[in-house]
Design a protein that fits this description.
Layout: E1 2-6, H1 13-24, E2 28-30, H2 31-39, H3 44-54, H4 61-72, E3 81-84, H5 90-102, E4 109-114, H6 117-125, E5 127-130, E6 136-138, E7 157-158, H7 165-188, E8 192-196, H8 201-223
Parallel strand pairs: 1-3, 1-4, 2-3, 4-8
Antiparallel strand pairs: 5-6, 5-7
Helix pairs in contact: 1-8, 2-3, 2-4, 6-7
Length: 224
């Protein structure tokens, strides 16, 4: 199953991607983590990518597509994957379709986890991140067992300096300008499912899991 998760910053794509990955035994591929692993790989591609990041520039599509291509060719992606943070533009979405088509594959579904702009700002400014493993916590909804300590690895939690109202509003504006058109791109081809992201985490996951289970059943029927 090949899936894409879309939604405003703070919509919970990472959390839901991890849960879907665990349930269906397919990798959750966060582009942020993917880029970091390439940069730290010591390979030539990592050095090229880092040269753009160091200057604060966007990574050109040709390099992003190559990074992604190498990742989804790995053995653990044989049965599918979940993309989180990619594609960011319609151009990237088209490139992804073309790349998959060359390998006789196709994207099964894009999910748009829908929250309001106000909810997005609230979630971003109320979240804390583990300095060691990157696990995200919400002050309001996902309280850690020991205050300020990550349940997962015991690392310290902190607020990222860019998790403030001004930056959050800018990120939302950028998303609406650059990435929201991707929602329409997938909707036009009948590959989009909207999910109410303002439910609690379990409610969002239940809706996603139900939709993915239906896709698996549909595929099984087509193959049978």
């Amino acid at each position: 199953m090949r899936l894409v998760l879309l939604g405003l910053p703070g919509a919970g794509k990472g959390t839901q991607g991890e849960r879907l990955a665990e349930k269906y035994s397919i990798p959750h591929i966060s582009t942020g983590s993917l880029i970091r692993s390439v940069v730290n790989s010591g390979l030539e591609l990592g050095a090229i990518v880092n040269s753009y990041i160091a200057k604060g520039n966007l990574i050109p599509d040709e390099y992003m597509m190559e990074i992604l291509r190498q990742r989804i060719m790995e053995d653990d992606c044989r049965n599918g994957w979940i993309l989180d943070g990619f594609p960011r533009t319609v151009k990237q979405a088209k490139h992804l379709d073309e790349m998959l088509k060359r390998d006789s594959q196709a994207l099964d579904r894009a999910f748009d986890i829908r929250i309001s702009a106000d909810e997005a700002v609230s979630r971003i400014t109320n979240r804390r991140v583990c300095r060691s493993c990157g696990q995200i916590y919400s002050i309001e909804h996902s309280l850690e067992k020991v205050k300020g300590v990550c349940d997962k690895c015991g690392g310290p939690l902190y607020q990222r300096p860019d998790d403030n109202v001004e930056v959050a509003k800018h990120r939302i504006q950028v998303y609406m300008e650059q990435t929201h058109p991707v929602v329409h791109y997938y909707a036009q081809s009948g590959r989009l499912t909207g999910i109410n992201g303002e439910q609690d985490i379990d409610g969002v996951f239940a809706d996603l899991a139900t939709a993915v289970a239906a896709l698996y059943a549909q595929k099984a029927g087509e193959q049978g």
